[in-house]
Specification:
Protein name: Inositol monophosphatase family protein
Number of helices: 8
Keywords: Magnesium, Metal-binding
Cofactor: Mg(2+)
Shape: globular
CATH topology of the largest domain: Fructose-1,6-Bisphosphatase, Chain A, domain 1
Structural class: alpha+beta
Radius of gyration: 18 Å
Number of domains: 2
CATH class of the largest domain: Alpha Beta
Distance between the termini: 46 Å
GO molecular function, one term: metal ion binding
InterPro entries: Inositol_monophosphatase-like
Strand content: 15-25%
Helix content: 25-40%
Length: about 290
Amino acid sequence: MSTTPTPRLILETLLPHLKVAAAYARFLQPKIAALPAKESGDNFFAAALTDADLAIQNLVEVVLLGTFPEIRFYGEEYESSGNTKYFRAVELGSTDDYLVTLDPIDGTKFYMDGHSNYQIILSILNTDDFEAVIAISPAQNTYYYALRGQGAFQGTLEMDLGTCKPLRVTSSKPHVLLGWEMSSIAPALEAQYQVIDVATDYSSDKQIPNLNGILSGDLSGAVIKSGKFIDGAALAFLAREAGCIVTTLDGSTLPPLHTCKEYSRSGLIVATSKEVHQHLLQATQNLF
């Protein structure tokens, strides 16, 4: 097998194409027509599928196969894509045999309802942890990226990786986001925070923060039942590189990726400070 490209080279190579994908997503949003809902999925966000999901994944697949033909790749729409069979593998590899993952439209329901906080998330995974993540917000003309151990960065879509500014989360609103099936811990937090529960607070008319609100300062913390490699776990990696605290629901260090099942990490706590993390950790003790 040829030499594996570095995570930074993969990001640098894909970024111009991801910017094209962002422009496409932005153009298509007001015109979007939903395709039939996905058969699987445990919530209505996961059930939404649009033309943009498939088209953006196909674009990234073509670029990867044309540039890094030996790379491993797992995209959210792999079952629907005609390109899946051409990749060497869709699973995690051994050390430094990277797996690229893609969520072509993270927050498809947000996207379909005309909200601005949907994202395109591309990650590079090693056997133990993330090596890099880039999360693009087309409607907000911004993106975040992080490389393992090198911190997180933010820039506009006119900027390349080298001109983005370092991102360090230092302040945030006293808002906490609860993911699906986390409603039971809300009462333990409501005295100190404005709790945003996606299961009950989502509205097609009024936008609520998603997990990357941690990076923008709109959230102090978040608790999610599981973090898929392609979205929640990727955003948690970005938050960690930006200085946030990320643990399992019982406060433990995150396990290596290769020990996780179904492309997903178990429950996650993401907090902007030790104090917030302690509050969220105390609240989750009701789950055990």
